[in-house]
Design goal:
The chain is α/β, with parallel strands linked by helices and 478 residues long. It is built from 13 helices and 20 strands. The protein folds into two domains: 242 residues, DD-peptidase/beta-lactamase superfamily (Beta-lactamase), CATH 3.40.710.10; 222 residues, no CATH class. It has a five-stranded antiparallel sheet, sandwiched between helices. A five-stranded mixed sheet has the order 16-8-6-3-17. Strands 4-5-7-15 form a four-stranded mixed sheet, covered by helices on one side. A hairpin with an 8-residue loop joins β9 and β10.
Length: 478
């Protein structure tokens, strides 16, 4: 099915991309009858636009927003930038008796990937490393508690413009000054026949147990289950439907208070390690009677480089990483680790890059908010700037998924014509499909493109397949 570029092949043989596209071109198929479509294609070297349609209208970009966040972070912070999580203690330590009269302090430094499943080799058993360093000091008993200090960012981990359905689930995990294990936990269920109640087998890790009212049913073959829980809450509920006849079906949910969770987890590790501790673990946010005192450093854990983090962010479309980066930009350049401050930094970056920001509305770093809006001309302008004037284009380009091979593009753009010719970030949410990136034509032309479609009807696979076919035509015939 051809929805876009209906006269592309004829046009390309006459005027090499240049054409006037009418609204009839896009509404030729019923799935786009009520949709909003924005398209822009440009020469990657000159920046000259060769095809555009509604390129100036602002639409919801979904995860294509990550192109803006990740490129701004790379250009402003540099690919070798890292985050640090530090462990120390307050008070006095009697090395003869091993008694610490004070607290163990775990200070978050905004690391988006601490303990992440995406970097298992890097972090390894970082908690055991912390324990080993504490043991080296001879600490055997703590007259105090474990306190996690998550004050590095603000205490608004979830952007205000996210929707309630997303927030309690793993992809809606908030960004905290001290995040850990992707701020995600698992709820395991056993399901049986249609319209029966699933049984909850276990929660992993166990420390994430909370009061969750269960309104799930077993139905169908797809995952339509959602967790509803707000940041810092201790209760919530689960609703929707999960597939029938599953021995171990897993719902992944967002940890509602990662700093407090880590304090409790490390407290248990200390006890299991044979270290007695008198106080209950807590986070600095809740430690109202805490009086600031000098923290004596014990050890630190350093993150992977920003380039490595951005590669995972764009390959796997990790919302959490993007939300950390927008806050980090605010922290470093506005001394305010908030989403709003980070958005201001990104606006300034775009403007300094020659991008017209009048059509941009940035509500988060990941694109999860339905109130984000950009246009394809802005995206193409940014991609051209990065290609020709970006200090770290190679790192950015490498972070984009390779068509048909990895990340979010592993199962699309699989035609051999795309191999080694297409690097693109995709975006998807309900009734939204978007793509932006770079391609090289068979004749060797370097091109950039972006397409955003909002409020289409019918299966999303039809939209994606049509886009693939037409990008293929662009690659082959120009």
């Amino acid at each position: 099915m051809r929805i876009f570029f209906i006269i592309l092949l004829t046009c390309s043989s006459i005027c090499s991309f240049s054409q006037n596209i009418t609204s009839d071109t896009f509404h030729a198929d019923s799935s786009l009858a009520h949709a909003s479509v924005s398209l822009c294609v440009a020469d990657a070297i000159s920046g000259n636009i060769t095809i555009e349609y509604n390129a100036g209208i602002s639409l919801i970009p979904a995860s294509v927003m990550k192109i803006i966040t990740s490129s701004a972070a790379l250009e402003l912070l540099g690919p070798d930038y890292t985050f640090k999580t530090t462990v120390g203690y307050t008070g006095t330590l009697n090395k003869r008796s091993g008694l610490l009269k004070g607290n163990i302090i775990i200070h978050g430094g905004g690391d988006p990937a601490l303990g992440s499943k995406y970097f298992p080799d890097h972090y390894s058993n970082f908690l055991n490393n912390w324990l080993s360093e504490i043991k080296k000091l001879g600490i055997k008993k703590i007259k105090g508690k474990v306190i996690t200090d998550d004050s590095y960012y603000d205490y608004l981990p979830v952007p205000g413009k996210w929707i309630w359905e997303d927030i309690g689930n793993y992809y809606g995990a908030g960004a905290y000054g001290l995040s850990v294990y992707d701020n995600t936990y698992e709820i395991h269920f056993k399901t049986s026949s249609e319209n029966t109640l699933p049984s909850m087998n276990e929660i992993i890790p166990n420390e994430c147990k909370s009061e969750l009212s269960d309104f799930l049913i077993s139905s169908g073959t797809t995952d339509e289950g959602y967790v509803f829980a707000a940041p810092y809450s201790t209760a919530g509920w689960i609703a929707g439907a999960i597939p029938v006849n599953q021995q171990d079906f897993v719902l992944k949910a967002s940890i509602t208070d990662p700093p407090l969770f880590l304090a409790r987890l490390f407290n248990e590790r200390l006890k299991a390690f044979g270290i007695k501790i008198s106080g209950d673990p807590n986070s600095l946010r809740l430690e109202h009677n805490y009086q600031a005192s000098k923290v004596i450093p014990i050890t630190e854990t350093v993150s992977p480089t920003l380039a490595e983090i951005v590669t995972v962010l764009n390959h796997e479309s990790v919302n959490l990483f993007a939300e950390h980066l927008i806050k980090e930009l605010g922290k470093k350049f506005k001394n305010n680790g908030s989403t709003v401050s980070g958005a201001q930094v990104i606006y300034e970056f775009l403007k300094s890059s020659g991008v017209d920001i009048n059509g941009s509305f940035i509500e988060d770093g990941s694109g999860l908010s339905p109130l984000n809006a950009v246009n394809t001309r802005e995206l193409v302008s940014l991609l051209v700037f990065l290609r020709n004037k970006g200090k770290y284009f190679n790192e950015f380009y490498s972070s984009l998924p390779d068509a048909g091979k990895n990340g979010t593009l592993k199962n699309c753009f699989t035609d051999p014509v795309f191999e080694s010719r297409l690097r693109v970030k995709s975006g998807s949410m309900t009734r939204v499909r978007s793509f932006a990136g770079y391609f090289t034509t068979v004749s060797g032309k370097k091109m950039v493109f972006s397409i955003i479609i909002n409020n289409y009807s019918g299966p999303s696979k039809i939209i994606t397949s049509a886009i693939e076919e037409n990008i293929k035509d662009l690659i082959i015939n120009n």
